Structures are given as C-alpha cells and as structure tokens.
Amino acid sequence: MFKTGVIYQWLTRGAVTADHAEFLFQLRKRRITIRILQIAILLAFIGLWELMGQMGWINTFLMSQPSKILNLFIKMCQNGQLYHHIKITLTENIIGFSSGTILGILIAILLWWSDFLFNLLEPYLVILNSIPKVALGPVMIVWLGNDSPAIIVMALAVSIIVTIIMLINGFREVESNKIKLLQTLGATKKQILFKVILPASVPTIFSALKVSVGLSLVGTIVGEFLVSKAGLGYLIVYGGQVFNLHLVMTSVIILCIIAGLMYYFVLLLEKLIIKWR
Amino acid sequence: MKEKVRLEGIQKKYISKKGETLALKEINLSVKENEFICIVGPSGCGKTTLLSIISGLIPPDIGKVYINDQEVTQIYPRVGYMLQEDYLFEWRTVYENVRLGLEIKGMLNGETRDKIMMLLENYGLADFTNHYPRELSGGMRQRVALARTLATDPEILLLDEPFSSLDYQTKLTLEEEMHNILKRQQKTVIQVTHDIAEAISMADRIIVLSKRPAVIKSTFDIDFQEDITPLQKRNIKKFQVYFNDIWKELDIHV
Ligand SMILES: Nc1ncnc2c1ncn2[C@@H]1O[C@H](COP(=O)(O)OP(=O)(O)O)[C@@H](O)[C@H]1O
Ligand SMILES: [Mg+2]
Asked: Do both B74 and B107 map to the same domain?
C-alpha cells in the first residue's frame, strides 16, 4: 500500500515499533473513516433534499429547501433578527438551567444531610419527576405573567427535579466505608460532605448535567411556544402559523446546533475537571 | 511497662430488622505500650467489630475501653485505624490521599507537609506522589494507606487484615517493611488477621478468638530472639511449634 507516504507517516505518528505503528494506523484509519462517513451522510441528506426541491419532486412550500433556509439564515443574520431571538432563548435557558442545577444540588445536599427529610419527601419527588413539567406551563404564565420569568421557571422546573433525584441517589451510593474512613480520622459531617460525598459524586453531577441540559432546553422552547413573544420557540410557532416553513426549519436547525454545543460544553467541562479517570 | 489499652467486659450485638447477632460475648484485654498484638480468629467472629469498638467508632453494649487510662467514648484522636481495604480516594493523588488525616484534623502545615514527603520517600512512593490510585499496584496502594494512617503520627495503630488482599510475595515484603517502620517508631499495635503465620511473624502476643459470639480462647506469648525480622522468624523451628499450637486453637471448619 502507501506505507511510506506522508499520510501513513501522519497516521502513525508517535509509534514506537512497527507493530505499534500498524496498530495506530488501523485505529486512526477507522476513526477517520467513520468521521468522513458521518459528514458524507449529512451532506447526502442535504444534497438530496435540495435536489428534490429543485426538481419539483417535493413541495418546497411544505417541506422547505436547504438553499432557501440558507438564504433566510443569511438575511436574518444581516438584519440582526436572529441574534435577537437566539440571545433571548439562550439567556432564558442558561438562567433556568443553571439556577435549576444549583438549587437541585443544594436540595440534594439537604436531603443527604437529613435522612428523615429524604424518607419523608421521597414519594413526592418521584411523583414530581413523573409528571411532565411542561404541563405546568399555563399555570406559570398565570402566576408569573406572560413573559420571560415564566419561561425561566419552566426551564428550571424541568432540570431541578432530575438533578435532585440523580444526585441524592449518587450521594447515598457513595461507599459507606469511605465515610467510615473519614470518621476514623475524626471528621465532622460537614467534612464528610466536602471531602468525600461531593468529590465522589462529581461524575454523577456531570451525568445529571448532561440530562438536564437537554431537558431544560425543552422547557425553554415549550415556554416560548406558550408565551409567544420572542425567542427560537416563538419563531417556530410563528413560522408555523404563517406557513413560513423556511423559518420553522431555520429555527429548528439553530436549536439543534445550540443543543449540541451546550452538551459538548458540558463534556468539555467534565474532561477538564475529572482528571483522575 | 505502662498499660496503653484496656478492654473491660466488652459485649456487642448487632440488631436489625431480621433479629440480632451477638458478635462479641465478653472481651477483656490489656495491651502494654509498644506492644504488638495480633488478634486471630475465624472469619465473621467479630474481629473488625472489636477494632471499631477500640477506635471509638462504635460503642460497646456492655463494657468499657480505656486508652491511656481514659475511657473512650468517641473517636480517640491518637489512634490510627487502618480499615480492611485501602479505600483510597480515586479523585486524589497519592500525596493528597496521604494528607487526608492531617486535613481533617487541621494539622496541615509546612512541617507536616515535609513529613508526608519523607513518609512517601521511605515507602518507595516518592516517584508516585502525583499519581492517581488507579495507576498503583495492590502493594503500593497498601503502602499509601499505611502512610495515610501514619501521617497523623498516632500512638496506637489498629490494623484490620492489612495484607489480606495482597499476593504472597508482596505480603511478605510488606510485613518486613511494616515491621521495620513500626519498630523504629515505637508504636502500640493491634493487628487483626486470619493468617496464623503472619501473626506469629509480626506479634509479641497473639490473642485467639473463638467463633461467634467471640470470647478470648487463648493467648500466646511469642518469644523470638531480639532483632530478627518476620521473614527470618519463618525459618526458625519454634515458628512451626507456635503454628501448630495456634492452629489447634482456632475453630476452623472447612
Ligand atoms: N453493621 C452490622 N450489622 C449487622 N451485623 C453485622 C454488622 N457488622 C458485622 N455484623 C456481623 O457481626 C459478625 C462479626 O462481624 P465482623 O466483626 O466483621 O467479623 P470479622 O471481622 O471477624 O470477619 C458477623 O456475623 C457479621 O455478619
Ligand atoms: Mg473483618
């Protein structure tokens, strides 16, 4: 094959022996192949969609079309509309998500601190977890007004319950002998919390973050559907009402990108913080 | 020599929904300063329970524990208790694990930091100071756990089967090391084990517990000539004699 070429050189960088080089080559080749195919699938999908629109095989009024989405995207970027709506959605979501997470962690700590409180409240948590929080949307609007606060509370409500439930279970599963170890050293309950419970639960906290980052976005968008003033959720609803499917598709795609970026951000943070794995 | 630890009529039962288990029936014991005691007994007889009671981690139902003639009612600060497994914190480096006790006790300062570095040096861990536990072998993990226990400079060491999870060679090496370290440092040690050979090679005195509910079945004074290491003891004829005597005393049913 091309075992002497530059590409082979690059794919086997850092190799110590010939066998190691071959191993690295296979590993990296596989990884690159998969990445290329992933991109190809996406491009093929977009290409096919565009082609079917151009050829008139689909009704672009109902199905939209990549080129029209791109045009709209550029136009909305230029007139600043997009920036305005993205900013609103992001702000609402980040406030809701982070306050939900912080409150969730604090409540989980409280429930860990008092076993009695945990046993008392556990059934309520389970019930709260199983009801779809977005069903409370109209109530939030009545209570908090037809504006951003209601949406933020929706994002918060969706993320807080998952965070509490995942964390309290994580806290309670910390190996009891690690706690015993600290007790033999004379640790107080507060020291047990900070020296073992919280650090041991960092991976759990990140699992919870990964779940709630997506869920809170659902909360935000549904909130915007209901309040219908601004934000990507508003654009989607509005686009649907006036049969502007290009607008709907553009907003949905941006939403996908935002969700992806936020998830990726959590992953990155996890990698930075958990060095011991 | 001065008495360091005294147990008077210790009884302990565990009560749970299913019923109750009498673990310790009645234990009386006196340990002298700088003495090395090994407690042997069949598994499940209450050895760990006994150590936990001495440390003050759990209270006895009946009876009293005295350390330095003071009754133990809570965790006694000058006791170093090494649990049956190492329980190293996987999110902390070797150095950070070793300093845990000092952190808890608020004793972390320049001097104690230097001491930790010295401990790590002495235990052959100097190159692993900033490694995480997952990168260590079983023997090294056990050394880290020992360093963590000794970092707070306890007067009394309670060791719960410290070598039971190690392979034979590592175990013999660590026995030698532990012997050297503790001999130099003048500590009172109460070690629990189910390994008779280990007990004979380490201890000044061996306490044999009966099966549950535990009482002290017999006591053996182990007397070798001075300045001989655990490994050397294993090659002396007396060793086999002790072994057979103690073996007969232990209620081991296979
Ligand atoms: N926390 C506990 N609750 C109920 N029973 C226990 C508890 N800890 C130990 N036991 C029981 O007490 C007995 C003695 O246990 P332990 O002291 O751990 O024995 P050993 O260390 O000698 O193996 C065993 O039968 C064990 O099942
Ligand atoms: Mg035990």
From this structure: no
Interface membership of B96 toward A (CB under 8 Å): no
Q: Decide which of B109, B133, B154 is a domain's last residue.
A: B154
In the block, residue with structure tokens 């960088």 = A13
pLDDT value at position A223?
A: 92
CA atoms within 13 A on the CB side of A245: 9
DSSP annotation of A109: H
Distances (CA, A) of B19 to A39, A106, B45, B119: 64, 37, 17, 46
The residue contributing the CA closest to ligand 1 atom 16 is B46
CB of residue B23 inside a 6 A radius of ligand 1: yes
User: Which positions ≥6 away from A82 have C-beta within 8 Å?
Assistant: A73, A76, A254
CB spacing of B91 vs A276 below 8 angstroms: yes
Q: What pLDDT is attached to residue A10?
A: 86
- Whether residues B98 and B45 share a domain: the answer is no
Q: Is B4 helix (H, G, I), strand (E, B) or coil?
A: strand
Of B175, B170, B171, residue with least CA distance to B228: B175
Total of domains in chain B: 2
In the predicted model, residues of chain A with pLDDT beneath 50 are none
What part of B 152-211 touches A (C-beta under 8 Å)? Answer: 152
pLDDT in tens, B187-219: 999 999 988 999 999 999 999 999 889 999 999
Ligand nearest to C-alpha B43: 1
Residues B138, B240 share a domain? no
Q: How far is A103 from chain B (nearest CA, A)?
A: 25
Looking at the structure, do residues B171 and B252 belong to the same domain, yes or no? Answer: yes
Distance CA A186, CA B72 (A): 13
**From CA B199, how far away is CA B131, in angstroms rounded?**
32
**Domain of B45?**
1-78+155-254
Are B40 and B246 within 8 A, CB to CB? yes
Mean pLDDT of chain B: 91
DSSP code at position B252: -
The span from the CA of B223 to the CA of B231, in Å, is: 15
| Position B253 confidence tier, pLDDT thresholds 50, 70, 90 | low
Spell out the CATH class of A71-273. mainly alpha
DSSP type of residue B123: T
Asked if the interface predicted TM-score (ipTM) of this complex is over 0.90, the answer is no
Write out residues 177-216 of A within 8 Å (CB-CB) of B.
177-178, 180-187, 191, 195-196, 199-200, 202
Q: Residues B37-83: pLDDT tens digits? A: 999 998 889 999 999 999 999 999 999 999 999 999 999 989 999 99
Are the CB atoms for B33 and B4 separated by under 8 Å? Answer: yes
Task: Examine the domain organization and report whether B165 and B241 are in the same domain.
Answer: yes
